[in-house]
Write a structure and sequence with these properties.
By secondary structure, the chain is of the alpha/beta class. The chain folds into 2 domains: 2-82 and 264-459, Aminopeptidase; 85-247, Aminopeptidase i, Domain 2. The protein is 26% helix and 26% strand. It is built from 11 helices and 21 strands. The chain has a 9-stranded mixed β-sheet, sandwiched between helices. The longest helix has 20 residues, at 266-285. The two termini are 26 Å apart. Mean pLDDT is 91; it is low at 135-154.
């Protein structure tokens, strides 16, 4: 179970895209990857490198001793974001009850966010000259006493400590990643006595029904004070914050045989972790040119500067070639001879709703990693690459299944089609099969994670 615990712990920590990217960065630097900046010139030689992208994007690559310009490049990608609820900038609401105004990020199953403990996490931008508490953990009441306001008076004492880590900044502000590290809010359902049709399916009004309660009988500006306490500063020194609600339930082994995992953010932290393991293994092997790309904003269409449908991937490849002193004209050869693996969760056959699936072309728990096929290219479909990977997976004894959507069901899409339209290389979409996709908590077979990681590692060989 130790390997299960490792990737489950990663999911528990990666509560926002920003936390995910920071933990990836730390793991890679700890593994010996040299950190470089996307905004600086590079002088590269064979070795392993990592670079922080904008937002929740991150990158890592390995240049082998045998790498040559024009040789096929191997690229793998995953996304760091997950559907959730965002706390609005002027997020404080309510009078007696302390409420927070939210809007919806991506496409979550909204009713699964009700009646469960929720945490708060995100990033906070603080004035450069702000006096920052040295606390790492401890009493949030103490933190509030030190940071509540200009006068130093305690307006609201908070019961959950939380944590902060500085990750960057500009000439004017310092950036901190913050987390409550525990439940601080919840969104209560309306009692069935006042909502008799609730079990028939009642649509939630986002502006009304998705406002979490953080407490009661609290003084004005409680939210600003709480955010400041997480960062260890005064409320007056917080310039901007970007905060999200997250499910505090940890990833847990479930089932009478202990063979399943129930967890928030299986979509898509499972893929993020598998890609991390794969690029670290590629660094030990040290052959060819292998690139890992973690993008943000997949759940909202990827058309952002940190998304897969941006210029980031071509720019990164061009910078690597330039840093090695390789001619840019050879990039096209590397792309056409290369291949890409787009990692994102897949749909497992739902035992209660088999009518939504094409059973002979569906994955079940325990089948291993899922290869996705879509004639309409909702998933990138390269038959020649699937054929090759079928043979290689079989030879490596890595279990797999092939999934296509039922013909009357559109299904979702992935980053694969977006990236392959910018870098026209043979591309395969794959992922671990899960149930309850986009629910606050999702479900998968524990054994399928090993197969997913096996595919990611094999693809870089």
């Amino acid at each position: 179970m130790s390997s299960d615990r490792e990737w489950m712990s990663f999911i528990n920590r990666a509560v926002t895209p920003y936390h995910c990217a920071e933990f990836l960065r730390r793991e890679l630097v700890s593994a010996g990857f040299a950190e470089v900046s996307l905004g600086a010139p590079w002088e590269l030689r064979p070795g392993a490198y990592t670079a922080k992208g904008p937002g929740g994007a991150h990158f890592a690559w390995v240049i082998g001793e045998d790498a040559k310009p024009g040789d096929g490049v191997a690229i793998e990608l995953a996304h760091t974001d997950a559907p959730c609820l965002h706390i609005k900038p002027a997020g404080e609401a309510g009078s007696y009850y302390a409420l927070a105004d939210t809007d919806v990020y991506g496409g979550p199953i909204l009713n699964t966010w009700l009646d469960r403990p929720l945490g708060v996490a995100g990033r906070v931008f603080v004035r450069k000259k702000a006096r920052v508490s040295t606390r790492v953990s401890g009493s949030a009441k103490t933190a509030a006493a030190k940071t509540a306001g200009d006068s130093g008076a305690v307006k609201n004492a908070f019961a959950v400590a939380g944590s902060a880590m500085q990750v960057g900044g500009t000439a004017h502000t310092s950036e901190y990643l913050v987390s409550s590290d525990g439940p601080v809010m919840t969104i209560p359902n309306l009692a069935i006595h006042f909502n008799r049709d609730v079990n028939k399916g009642v649509e939630l009004k986002k502006a009304i029904d998705l406002r979490p309660i953080a407490g009661f009988s609290m003084e004005k500006n409680w939210l600003a004070e709480y955010v400041a306490s997480l960062a260890g500063v005064r409320a007056a020194d917080v310039v901007e914050s970007e905060l999200y609600l997250y499910v505090t339930q940890p990833a847990e082994i479930v089932g009478v045989r202990g063979d399943m995992v129930s967890s928030p953010r299986l979509d898509n932290q499972t893929s993020c972790y598998a890609l991390l393991a794969a690029i670290k293994k590629a660094a030990k092997r040290g052959r060819g040119l292998s690139i890992a790309m973690w993008f943000d904003n997949e759940e909202v269409g990827s058309q952002t500067r940190q998304g897969a449908d941006s210029a980031l991937a071509p720019m990164l490849l061009a910078k690597i070639y330039d840093g090695l002193g390789w001619p840019a004209a050879r990039i096209n050869e590397a792309v056409f001879a290369g291949r890409c693996l787009s990692l994102d969760v897949a749909h497992a056959l739902h035992p209660n709703h088999p009518e939504k699936y094409d059973e002979p072309n569906s994955a079940r728990f325990g089948d291993g990693v899922t290869l996705k096929v879509s004639a309409n290219q909702r998933y990138t479909y390269s038959a020649e690459l699937i054929a090759e990977m079928r043979e290689r997976l079989a030879a490596a004894k890595i279990p797999y299944a092939v999934h296509t959507n039922q013909s009357d069901v559109v299904g979702g899409s992935t980053m694969g089609p977006l990236l392959s339209s910018q870098l026209p290389m043979a591309t395969l979409d794959a992922g671990v099969p899960i149930l309850a996709m986009h629910s606050a908590c999702e479900l998968m077979a524990a054994s399928d994670m090993k197969a997913l990681t096996g595919l990611a590692e094999l693809f870089f060989e």
